[in-house]
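re: that complex we talked abt at group meeting.

here r the seqs, copy pasted straight from the sheet so there may be weird spacing, ignore it
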Amino acid sequence: MQPIEARTTMQELSGSTTYSQEEAMILAAQKDLQLFSALYEKYYGQILKFVYQRVTTKEDAYDIAQQIFLQAMLSLHKYEIRGFPFSSWLYRIALNEMNQLFRKNKKQRGINLEEKHLKSIVEELGAPDDEERENAILGALTGLPEDEFQLVEMRFFEARPFKEIAEILSISEANAKMRLYRILEKIKPIAEKNLKTGR
Amino acid sequence: MVMKNFKINKNQQALSDADIARGKDFGKLVKAYKAAKVPFYKSAKLWIAASSVLVASVAALMIFSKMNASGTEGRPFIAPPLASADIQSAVYVLNAQSDSTISYPTGSKIHVPANAFIDKNGKVVTGKVDLYYREFKKVDEVFLAGIPMTYDSAGEQFHFETAGMMEIAASQNGESLKANPDALVKVDMVSANNEDRFNTYYLDTIEKKWKYKVQSNFNPSSAIDTLERTANTQKPVEGVKQLQKEIAQLEKQKPNKPQKQNAGKPRFSIKVEPKEFPEIAVYKGVKFQVEDASYKPEKADITWADIELKRLPGNNRYQITFINPGERYQVIAVPVFNEKDYAAATQLYNEKFKVYEEALAKKKAEEAALAAKFKAKDEEERAGVTGHQKYLHDQQAQANLIYRSFEVSDFGYWNSDHPCRLPAGNNMVRLTLTDSKTGKPVKATVCYLVEKDRNALFAYGATGLERFRFDDGKQNGVWVITTDNRLGLARYSDFRAAQTKGGEMALRLTMMDKTLKTTEEVRQYLEL
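got the structure back, here u go
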């Protein structure tokens, strides 16, 4: 007989379904929210960076990230494992939380740009690359509705694959691609106009 | 909506690991969660609809719940009403390649054969495995676990009456494991119900229904004394045993009282090994005086090649064997002293004996204290048994505890159940509820009638209160969740005192204002 070491922590892995490690973590956290700490630990950095990309200060990013995880904890019992990454659920919560805060002007929307971001859009549009054109494109982008800008932001500023964008936005991958190219078609003439008018 | 009030930051410095670590604070998150969390009585409305009925009993534990018929689609199939008050699993770490038997606090036994676990690829698992186990026998445990208890048989819905339910699961490195069909885990679950009408069911969480497995799963001759078993498994006697061993060792070192030599008896000197015979080596001038009547004096004239000395049981006697090739001669002798050495030996003996007595007394006191501590702990456990044990203790007065056995072909929920239809009380009234403090009417989302006699629980929705049935021959109490998400209760005495007039019963409720967070808090509150 082997000596048995008893532990006090609780974890549920019910039924005969085979779960991934992440799914097991989610099931465990649904049974005991203290075990949510493992998910928090795993995704905090990722979510914080996602938020920081969209706000103007680190302090705002910290506040919003905490709010996102709080919302996740409060809603965890409703989460159902459907084969999608847990992170995409967190991103959706993040977008909802931020949209509300921006709408109510409780936090300022930030757009964190690197030179390469605009260059990649210029390249995608098939236009010659110069600073004036980049500024014209930026002007066009900032005139977009928030949901359209988010798609551009995720694809060109954060270099996310279409599959991930689709999961975050709860749309199909084909739909994500179609939407993005329609947005690019939309901003192209606006950018050209901006270029001519010097905006 | 076009973006407005935005700020463009060009080439903003990326977050460092230190920046990320600075914002991370799980403790703060938990505090915020506790502050924001929906109280227990708010969440209850999610899982009970107006017409649902739950009945639970333990002596004949009956649980009735219309989870699926109550518009709860979209919720997890297994839905504890309050996550923080769910029944905790015990987690045992065991070696997958060895046989193990685990004693659960209720007295239930989990027999795990070697190689009982396979991974998702069907490969037998080796190394350490986490085994999870919990039981649900009491009405509040079933309530808190949020497990559906309806059973569909040929299109007709039945409600389970259970003689005990358990959940067992296993994992290794976070990956859930499956049961090896060639080496099944067996659970002997202690049950307070010794009737044989309960069959074995397994909860298929994929198909979301209970599945019939086998007929009655108990041996009527397996009556047990759970408290005795539990106490035995918990007695940490090893410390006491070790002290008793040390005491026995110490007693062997008791100094021998010096004895004067008898001039008329033969004696001889032997050089002894101090480590083997410290009780002799400590003295000077020790001689061995022969006590055998059959002693042959001529043997003293032989030169012997070797001597063996052996301590004999009893008082200060030794067996001495003189050895030469082809010849052995044994005598019985005692250590003695001449007049001069006797005085010195006596003084030394008195000193040594005092030290010995003190050491022995100290060791015995340690042993007595430790034994008393274990005894007190054992008595405390017996007298102050809580939770399962208290329940079983109570049940034991009424029924023989037995083992119900499960061959665990799949990990998950197993139940020893009997499908039955809803019972009804013999009184029907329109129930009105008022706050005992304010006298104001209380609007119920759900109202539970609790029968103490059979530990039964019936839940009525708001419309159900118009036709509230109860058995006035029972000890009745009530729990209420109000439309403004408060929790109220009427104890048995309140229920008895309630006035019934013209088919209407007016019940005064004690309203709870605090949020219940832990399992123990909820269970304490549920005790009427």
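couple things i noticed - Residues 299 and 329 of chain B are 8 Å apart (CA to CA). Confidence is low (pLDDT under 50) at residues 38-76, 226-236 of chain B.
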